[in-house]
Amino acid sequence: MAKKINKTNKSDKTNKKTKLDEISTSVKTAKIEKPDTSKPDSISALLGDDGPVANLLPGFAPRLEQQHLAEAIFSALENDAVLVGEAGTGTGKTFAYLVPALFCGKRVIISTGTRHLQDQLFYTDLPLVRKALGTSAKVSLLKGRANYLCRHRLARALRHPALRDETHQAHLRVINDWSRTTDTGDIAEVLHVPEDSMVWGFITSNDDFCSQHEFEDLADCFIHAARKRAQDADIVVVNHHLLCADLALKDEGFGELLPSANAFIVDEAHQLPDIAAQFFGRKLSSRQLLDLARDTVGEQLHEAPDMAELRDMASQLETGVRHFRLAFAVEPTRDAWITIKDNSAIERELEKLTLILDNVRDTLEQVADRGKGLESCYRRAVLHAQSLAKYAGEESTSEYIHWYETYRTGFSLNMTPLTVAEPFQRAMRAIPASWIFTSATMAVGGDFSHFKGNLGVADADELLVDSPFDYQHNAMLYLPEGLPEPSHQGYTAAAIQSILPVLQASKGRAFLLFTSYRALHEAARILETELDYPKLIQGQRPKRELIEAFQSIGNAVLLGTSSFWEGVDVRGEALSCVIIDKLPFGSPGDPVMGARIDNMRQSGGNPFFEYQLPQAAIALKQGVGRLIRDVTDTGVLVLCDPRVRTKHYGEVFINSLPPMPITRDIKEIDRFFEKERIRLRDDA
């Protein structure tokens, strides 16, 4: 039975909670008393008023919630336990896990959701906490191969015929100059080459290329040096993609990417189930096949110049890939494989592509011993042929969801596990270690069952601490009246009309978060003539530039979809209103979600209450988390979707949000912002 630890500061919210039998049960908890700070070496003392962190950082505000979380994490680290801990926005969970991680004396792997957060943790947060604690613990940053420069590949790229135009040459010159001075080879250091530049695919570390080199060639290998530093470190900072890739390799018995560890701390853990599904499954893309064709030609010229037929086969493979893509619909799409499996044109081109790939594989086998380059191409051809066979009907399994996605000129064939619970649990059991999962959004109505079920985490301590921010006084939830059901054809137009008075009251300064691009584009067209404030639209510029512009303008309205629902931190007056068009239910038409829904239904479950509703509640919490980012922030949250009031499950969404006053009266919104303007004027 999992030990349940009481959440804090819930009295305001508890009064409006209603039990829903279908989705949540009351959490039986044991009360947490105030942490014992009498011991000078206690975790709470380290984060207290007179602790080393407060002494180092002017303005550091000790938070009881942060100390609760830190104590729970330290206990889990000491006892080799599993902890699932949600910490509301503003808790300071980063310091809450860094202090016990550095204090526990174990090797700890810390995994974050993105490479940006990884860099923030390693270059900013860790140095501060290390300095405060006066520890000499070794720390290391480790990313996936594609994040590191390969000097051998760069030398080849400088002469590559596909990179002869001036733009590519300019990018290569910047990278070449940087390569002479960098100590890490981390391409995140290169700020003047766009992330989507074609050259990156030619110059970063590549397992197929790097496996060709002898050990003595590794002296100047950046990924080799990064992994060696990780082996020697006490704290290793990784991201979820690298963590899951390592767990999947270990599960299949193919080796490992990460050093052994005594503990794992997974931040932004709500992202983990979806990312794990990518690595415990399989994917074959047109890019992989075209890369194989290109590399086969290059290695044939170098290692088997007498085998001209390999060039012809590589050309046939490129043609087969193009023809297979053309057999699909013109417009990019994403759907279950079963929906097009009997399409005669697709079936015919798949058979041709399979035959071509088999021929490439068999011919490469004949020359694989001529050099490491051809040997590497042969191994890749074998793996790609195995993947393609699963879609050609030679192999099938009900444990995976078979689906495809087409892009403008390419495609991917995917196998995603129906659930990652079993393989993830095998991976956890194989590593005797503490596991800490933390995020601001894991619980649904105070219940962790959905998150734990996704990962198969049965026996775990649980902790839920609320945000220390004063939502009762600094925020308000507005539920517009009179809107039609979201399925109504005129819903988006009606929703935009209902929020225009809010945008006037807030004087811009708002995020409009949408659940679809279609709704975003329709809203943008309406607001073009209906709203005078500056408008920033997702897709017009890179995300980072949009956020910077939003902050600098000061009264802009930003329209975004899913990528703006999380990982965006705008503090202060520039963001004073977050407007959400619909409850973020996933589309049943998505092949992965659709297959999971069908599987649950066939197993006698209730997919809506067991899967779709919890997923949507967690996504909503992420979007709402954009509103209040600092203790002095104030703002209005608008949920346009009438289902939050008209459907019985609407209470699940309300009960999952921070406690704040709720109104349906636009005059109260006017008064809220007028009060804020008076406060700001007085403060000035």
Give an overview of the whole structure:
With 684 residues, the chain is α/β, with parallel strands linked by helices. Among the domains are: 145-224, no CATH class; 282-417, de novo design (two linked rop proteins) (Up-down Bundle); 471-683, P-loop containing nucleotide triphosphate hydrolases (Rossmann fold, 3-Layer(aba) Sandwich). Helix content is 47%, strand content 13%. The chain has an 8-stranded parallel sheet with strand order 1-12-2-11-6-3-5-4, with helices on both faces.
Structure, briefly:
The chain has 684 residues and is an alpha/beta fold. 47% of the residues lie in helices and 13% in strands.
Task: Enumerate how many helices there are, as a single number.
Answer: 28
Query: Main beta sheet, described?
Result: 8 strands, parallel
What share of residues are in beta strands?
A: 5-15%
CATH superfamily of the domain at 471-683: P-loop containing nucleotide triphosphate hydrolases
User: What structural category do the secondary elements indicate?
Assistant: alpha/beta
Radius of gyration: 27 Å
Shape summary: globular
Helix content: 40-55%
CATH topology of the domain at 471-683, by name, is Rossmann fold
* CATH class category label of the domain at 471-683: Alpha Beta
How many strand elements?
Answer: 19
Please give the CATH architecture of the domain at 471-683: 3-Layer(aba) Sandwich
Low-confidence regions:
6-40
Strand order of the largest sheet: 1-12-2-11-6-3-5-4
Distance between the termini: 54 Å
What's the pLDDT, averaged over the residues?
88
